[in-house]
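Listing S7. Sequence submitted for prediction.
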Amino acid sequence: MSGFNLANVISALKNGEIIVYPTDTLYGLGVDIYNNSAVKKLFLIKKRSFNQPLSIAVSNINDLKVVAFVDDRIIRVAERFLPGKLTLVLKKKTVVSDILTAGGNCVAVRIPNNTIALQILSVFGPLTCTSANIHGMPTPNKINEIQKQFKNKINVYIDAGELKDKPSTIVDLSGEKVMILREGSIPAQKILKAVL
């Protein structure tokens, strides 16, 4: 692993810069979720439509409660599977910008089980957690391949070696009905059991 200086990373985020950081699945693009101009810049650099929401990452369940509405059922799932390869779609709180959620009233949240990610998130706060690729292109699992896609548009890369794992399972708990939107690393059946 090379190039990880926490103070430099925090400073870059405070200045509205985009970072590439490791998660427990793949590399993610991170900006301060409360900085609208940084969020807009991320959409533009990733060439992602503003109609497609971005997911976010937090460091713990208390931070989850800051950005989204939770109930006992959500807490039960979060305590069972997070940190881990699970993304929860929840009703967002007003602190989360409509730009980030493409005008929707829900937000997709993760607590990645990765030491570096958790260190940054616990010191800085919530970050975007969208895959480190140009929209529509393959998601590289090595830093040098990500750098080729973004050319000189991103300055801060945290190299944690080759990352390749199944994507997270996405579960929508924003309404009464539990919906598995994507089955990934965690089997849907396990999540459904935990909810009931």
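Caption to Listing S7: primary sequence and predicted structure tokens for the chain studied. The mean pLDDT is 95. The two ends are 41 Å apart (CA to CA).
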